[in-house]
Automatic annotation (TrEMBL), chain A:
The lineage of its organism: Bacteria, Bacillati, Actinomycetota, Actinomycetes, Propionibacteriales. Keywords: ATP-binding, Membrane, Nucleotide-binding, Transmembrane, Transmembrane helix. It holds the Pfam family ABC_membrane. GO terms for molecular function: ATP binding. The keyword Transmembrane helix applies. It comes from Nocardioides deserti. This is ABC transporter ATP-binding protein.
From TrEMBL, chain B:
PANTHER family: ATP-BINDING CASSETTE SUB-FAMILY B MEMBER 10, MITOCHONDRIAL, ATP-DEPENDENT PERMEASE MDL1, MITOCHONDRIAL. SUPFAM superfamilies: ABC transporter transmembrane region, P-loop containing nucleoside triphosphate hydrolases. It comes from Nocardioides deserti. The lineage of its organism: Bacteria, Bacillati, Actinomycetota, Actinomycetes, Propionibacteriales. It is a multi-pass membrane protein. The chain crosses the membrane at residues 31-52, 72-90, 145-166, 172-192, 254-280, 286-306. It comes from the Bacteria. Residues 35-321 form the ABC transmembrane type-1 domain. Keywords: ATP-binding, Membrane, Nucleotide-binding, Transmembrane, Transmembrane helix. Its main location: membrane. The keyword Nucleotide-binding applies. GO terms for molecular function: ATP binding. This is ABC transporter ATP-binding protein. It is found in: Cell membrane. Residues 356-590 form the ABC transporter domain.
Amino acid sequence: MADEHGQQGRGSTSAGFRVLWVAIKREPWIFTVSTLGSVLFGALTVADAWVLGWSTDHVVLPAFETGEVGADMLLAVLGLFLGVAILRAVGIVARRLGAGVMQYRMQAHTRRAVTRQYLTLPMEWHQRHPTGQLLSNANSDVEAAWGPIAPLPMAVGTVAMMVIAIVQMLLADVVLALVGLTIFPVVIAVNVAYQRLAQGWMTRAQQLRAEVSEIAHESFDGAMVVKTLGREPEETERFGSRARELRDVNIKAGRIRAAFDPTLAALPNIGVLVVLAVGVSRVLSGATDAGAVVTVAYLLTIVSFPIRSIGWLLGEFPRSVVGYRRVRGVLDATGEMPYGDRTAAAPAGARGASLAVEGLAYSYEPGRRLLDGVDLAVAPGRTVAVVGATASGKSTLTMLLSRLVDPDAGRILLDGTDLRDLARGELAEAVASVPQTPFLFDDTVRGNVTLGADVTDDEVWAALRAAQADGFVAALAHGLDTRLGERGTSLSGGQRQRISLARALVRRPRLLVLDDATSAVDPEVEARILAALRDETGAGPTLVVVAYRKATIALADQVVHLQGGRIVDRGTHAELLRRSPSYAHLVNAYETEHDETHDDQGVNA
Amino acid sequence: MSTAMDSGEEIGAIRTLRRGVHFSPELKEGIGGTLALAVLASAGQVVVPIAVQQVLDRGVNGPGGPDVSFTVWAGVIAALAIVVTSFASYRMTTRLFTSAERGLATLRTKAFRHVHDLPLLTQNTERRGALVSRVTSDVDQVSQFLVFGGLLFVVSVGQVLVATVVMVVYSWQLALVVWLCFAPLFLSLRYFQRKLSDAYGTVRRQVGLMLSAVSEPVVGAAVVRSYAVEHRTQRRIDEAIDAHKAASTRAQGFTAFSFSLGGVSAGLANAGVLIVGIWLGQGRLWGGDITAGQVLAFAFLVTLFVGPVQMGTQILTDAQNAIAGWRRVIGILETPADLVDPGEAGAVLPRGPIDVRFEHVSFAYPGGPLVLRDVDLAISSGTRVAVVGETGSGKSTVAKLLTRLMDPSEGRVLLDGIDVRDIGSASLRRSVVLVPQEGFLFDDTLAANVRYGRLDATDDDIRASAEELGLGDWLGGLPRGIETQVGQRGESLSAGERQLVALLRAHLADPDLLVLDEATSAVDPALEMRIGRALERLMNGRTSVTIAHRLSTAENADEVVVVDRGQVVQRGPHAALVAEEGGVYAGLHSSWVAQQGR
């Protein structure tokens, strides 16, 4: 907050120009075209007066004096006026379209750059930045950063027009020009005063708008809770009170505007009146002639109004500077996952990959190890179940296995190759990981399963069948072509998980990592899914599965028990049940509870 | 229902304004005074340039040298006009801001309230983002237009009228010429507005697509990486960004072109005035009764006409966006809420455990197949009932009908013998509470979230109720106890802990009928047991209906209701149902037992 306030005033003006300079350097040609358009427009506005003067002297006055005027002269009048008007129209189109194109192009450049960063920066960076912030960096911050481009050509054109007008005024009569010119600093001062006074309220309004939006987001997200507890009136009050606050701030900002707008409109008129008063006395004293007074008064009128476009430009600066700084934060972020050059080609005849984890350690923040000294060896085609309480490090392990993050110590070997030595994209050829919370793209079912991979519809259906998703997909209105995601059909949590699973299966991975990926699926359906992972001969991918259900765990060749980031025990399910009380407690909590309630005994979990 | 919402986007501009004023009556308040001030302000803005023009013509440039007394008098009149105009303009703007902002705050709040009544919200989670934009950016657009554009538009129209009157007084023939020159512009306005409206409609659609594409590398960061689809994702983003840029550029082109038309008309009018003026002076047309000075003065008047016409057309262009926004907000308000609250007239449920009856209840989503078919069911007060069935059997629909998140397509749901549709919403929500699968929490403290169940609960009430549910030690183990911040959607807590908060919330709400959509899949078994125990205590002394995903819940229930393909196929205590060989329940149970490895 304090920082933002400190940025207002002169600091934000120079910073604002620096942001604009970035855009001008990036799109010099469009900037030139739109500025020339604006200058053309300004020049022709002045030319309009010249055409009127010329027509008066050469056509209108002679016509009335002599009563004779040639058709050619009338055509010349028509031609001059239309010519100037059409050129001026060209100027307008060049200015406005140019400003628009420049603005949209800059937005597009920045959005591409920002999203490229999102795709390049490592997962750890994503984990440290809230989703909402990253989305607004790519959306509203980009818009705010390039907001001043829209009024820029007009402002530049105005400056050009002012220079021309000032020179003309000085040429007409120096004294009158100086009298008239006093208006300019006053107009600029009033504009600045307006920006200063209104800024605080506008910033506040911007904040309130964000808060109103957040409340609406949250309230609609929690609609089920709101509705089932009948809290609509309280929610409406929560939203309404903020909306009313926004209303009051807007009204206050409006009052300031209401006072400044007519002042700014009146200033040039007052200036003209002063020029006239001084002018009359100067004409009387013979210091100047009437024509000079008319010229200065006229120029003053046409220049005063567009001066405000400079005010509009300056008014966009604070938002622009803040937006640009936030975008820059993303663009300047460093860090990229290094890749090696090895391929992940399967040894001849192998369906599953061999996996070896050696001395693995990982901490999200210094001093807090999420995983520590984890060793694990899985033979090709075998299944290992990872079992542990909430926050024991299971999901971290799955993230390391699919190399979303790299370990602090130790290594992971896939068929003997360190994951870090694999070339970019190679890992995904061999390993597929299915997270607990599925993510669907704004795409068709087919697109969501293939993700652009070159697979036939038959293979997609086979994957859906294995994930037990073929039934509901076939029942969708457009089958594989049904759109999912934000603007698409909504699916239940279990259905989403199965689509996400089919996405992994269609790639026929040699190592499949399931992070409790079937949690929202009924147990019977889950059993069918697990069975479908192996073919008739029992061959299938190597499987690392994070699970709670005993049936799932019992399928594993090996179970590792994670506690506080360390493997505290490993063996078959039966062995662990026998020798590890804490393991038994964890997976048997159900039955223990069941028996104990029947025995009517209390327990301390 | 989505069609009802979208059809709101079809209503015309005039009807939009009328409906808009209907929903925001504040917009009408004091409109007469505001308009009077607008007329005064516009008149002043015409008077001042005319006075200046007169001073130049007769005062400074007078036939017999500068006329000082005329200059002084005209100057004083002009100065007075400036003062009056400025003051009128100030008052008008203030009034306009006040009524517009008041009206829009009302509109926003009404729309927000109405969204909570729409079935869309609880049935289609994917479209919530679109709903948010209707109470935020759509309303902001209208606000921008009303206070800036609307104001300038009124002033511009006023100035055009005043300028026309003055022109007619000078010379009706020349005034006619000016209007004829602008006729093509006025006539083509409709066409351009329609084009612009389409163009901006496309822009808005592209914005939506772009935002969704841009969110993929953020929300789906892990998936994009683990499947190495960075290139494909970037390509999709680039396409969306380019499509947005193209649509915006096209719309901007239309805007620029339609705006430039005004300038051409102005040039035509200037030339026309001079030429026709000369003809008039020469007596070739309508008798010559005009002087050179009058023609030149008229040429000056044309500029007073052209300025506001250009301003007005510009505003009409901007209005397309605002009208579209307004239309969308109104579309929400005009989408009928499917659940009508009888309000004050509604029945009040007596306190104490509730008995439940379904009478010939059928349900289908609009345009969908029947999810429940002719279900009859009676649950006596104080019993614990588990509803079981496969995914898609219709068991969750039972919960939604019981808690009136939806109304049955046919038949009745009775609570204590009263049709739920006849029970006042306040009483219904007081007595019937649903604990959904996802324990949604608001970004606040744990205490504030629990208090959502009973607004006047003290911290001690919350702690006491946690003790009653056996959650005291869990609460004590949290770093800041009940003052712990739960984060956005409660994501600082684990999924299981969120459920505990939801149960605590329900306990504090003290309902007479508790409906649980049980799903503790994302939780380790030990935490799940804790939840299970809290649940047991929560159900004490109430009627409870649990949509059971785990059959262990069914084992502990007084009665099990088995739903299969939209119908109740079995009911009775667990022991009896298990014994029914070949029954649906026996099948479910045996696969459950196999799953548990027991």
